[in-house]
Amino acid sequence: MAFPLNSTSITLRKCLERTKLSIRYFDTSAFQDAKKTPPPQPKSSKSSKPSYRFVDRTRVRVTGGMGGKGSLSMKPSRKRYKLKPDGGHGGNGGSVILVADPHEQSLRWSHPHLQAEKGSNGDSQDCHGKNGENLIVRVPCGVLVKRVLNHGEVWDEEREMVLNSRTDDSSLHDNEDKVEVSREVQALLDAMGHTDDNDLEDADDEEEDWVSDDDDIQKERDRVILADLDKPGAHVMVARGGRGGLGSSIYGGESGPMPDPREMIAKSKPQPGEIAFLELELKLIADIGLVGFPNAGKSSLLRAMSRATPEVAPYPFTTLHPILGSVDYRDGVRIRVADIPGLIDGASEGRGKGFDFLRHIERTKALLYIVDAAGVDFRDPAEDLRVLANEIASYGNGAMMDRRALIVANKIDLLSEESLPELKYAISQAAKEMGILTDHEIFAISAGVTGTGLSSLSKAMREVVATVDEENDLWYDDHIG
Ligand SMILES: Nc1nc2c(ncn2[C@@H]2O[C@H](COP(=O)(O)OP(=O)(O)OP(=O)(O)O)[C@@H](O)[C@H]2O)c(=O)[nH]1
Ligand SMILES: [Mg+2]
């Protein structure tokens, strides 16, 4: 390769560099390779069904946005040798807010770290930086938000907030800030199409949403329960945005003494956003929870009564995660039913993931025990009911046993009519023996084949939920109202 060695304007070194550059620039092998290898194609999914992963427990790191820097600008003043400070303040960083949205089903995150927007820097001519946008994260209704306390963090019982040495400033927790956030959540709810008065009241009622009752704030070693997002629109701020730095304009007019630059620089520094580690746990909110052994026909019943389409198959543990379905009545009443995976003997001690499944029916108003009347898997329906009731009684503090219940014998299409009375009697005896709280008959149905008995069962489901609602209202009036 010939170099213009005799050139006075370009040295040999420069020339070599140029050559290298030109070689790099015109090297077309990369293009040729690109032609040979086709561009990466999106992976074809095996089934046409969208992949859906149910997540009911997760950990996530949330970070409030950093505040913007305050500007140190000084403009020349009319007075000679004087400068007038005219730097604007930095904007506050956005906060991270979790909002309960009934359209969300699962706790899925695109990223395990959620961060709100930074505040913009202040500028000269008293221009204040823009506040960072709050990051509003939608979670399903029924999420318990726990904060994991890190080293140096303590829960302040009085102020009901976490204090740490870095962001020991509660000023962003003042009412103005809450109102602002509440407005934002309200706008979100409007966009979600929530017109239910109760829902809107919940969103408006800041005191209730922002400051939990004493009972709700329980310390569990190094975790603290921040909120129970159990109603649509319930929200909680989990990471505050950092406050923006102060601009030089805070230092008065031209006549005053010049500010100390060191002090000015220190004040212009923004605060970082709060960092919090959260544990989120979803406990489904449903009116009725289905309780049964695997293969009893729980999913078939939910399919037959609602628009939900849980998988139904002739083998146990077809359902692997809880599914919510709504039973809609002609007059607009809607009852939410939770289908959980089948329970087995020892579920209350965690066997067969029992804890995980029972957790989802903890908050239901009533339970629906369903047994396989035909004993397809060589089961005895009355004995099954005893085992199920025993598991429910042994779970937690046994409070689920005080819940109203319906008892259903499924698969009666496989039985003769004559055998039904005897079977019903045996099941009702087992119910009495176990102390199941039911004043209804034993419902004999065929959920998956003929649909027999479904209409009277759906009426009873509605009645039992209404009864529980009435009882709850009475209790509320007696104790609180
Ligand atoms: N003959 C008859 N079979 C039924 C009836 N209901 C459900 N089945 C069958 O029973 C089997 C189990 O039904 P599922 O609805 O999947 O039972 P499940 O209780 O949800 O089972 P898991 O999800 O495994 O806990 C399936 O093969 C259904 O077709 C019924 O009324 N009659
Ligand atoms: Mg099922």
UniProtKB/TrEMBL annotation:
<dbReference type="GO" id="GO:0042254">
    <property type="term" value="P:ribosome biogenesis"/>
</dbReference>
<dbReference type="InterPro" id="IPR031167">
    <property type="entry name" value="G_OBG"/>
</dbReference>
<protein>
    <submittedName>
        <fullName>GTPase</fullName>
    </submittedName>
</protein>
<comment type="similarity">
    <text>Belongs to the TRAFAC class OBG-HflX-like GTPase superfamily. OBG GTPase family.</text>
</comment>
<keyword id="KW-0342">GTP-binding</keyword>
<dbReference type="GO" id="GO:0005525">
    <property type="term" value="F:GTP binding"/>
</dbReference>
<dbReference type="InterPro" id="IPR036726">
    <property type="entry name" value="GTP1_OBG_dom_sf"/>
</dbReference>
<dbReference type="InterPro" id="IPR027417">
    <property type="entry name" value="P-loop_NTPase"/>
</dbReference>
<dbReference type="InterPro" id="IPR014100">
    <property type="entry name" value="GTP-bd_Obg/CgtA"/>
</dbReference>
<dbReference type="Pfam" id="PF01926">
    <property type="entry name" value="MMR_HSR1"/>
</dbReference>
<feature type="domain" description="OBG-type G">
    <location>
        <begin position="286"/>
        <end position="466"/>
    </location>
</feature>
<dbReference type="InterPro" id="IPR006074">
    <property type="entry name" value="GTP1-OBG_CS"/>
</dbReference>
<dbReference type="GO" id="GO:0005739">
    <property type="term" value="C:mitochondrion"/>
</dbReference>
<dbReference type="GO" id="GO:0003924">
    <property type="term" value="F:GTPase activity"/>
</dbReference>
<dbReference type="InterPro" id="IPR006073">
    <property type="entry name" value="GTP-bd"/>
</dbReference>
<feature type="region of interest" description="Disordered">
    <location>
        <begin position="32"/>
        <end position="54"/>
    </location>
</feature>
<feature type="domain" description="Obg">
    <location>
        <begin position="52"/>
        <end position="285"/>
    </location>
</feature>
<dbReference type="GO" id="GO:0000287">
    <property type="term" value="F:magnesium ion binding"/>
</dbReference>
<dbReference type="InterPro" id="IPR006169">
    <property type="entry name" value="GTP1_OBG_dom"/>
</dbReference>
<keyword id="KW-0547">Nucleotide-binding</keyword>
<dbReference type="Pfam" id="PF01018">
    <property type="entry name" value="GTP1_OBG"/>
</dbReference>
<dbReference type="InterPro" id="IPR045086">
    <property type="entry name" value="OBG_GTPase"/>
</dbReference>
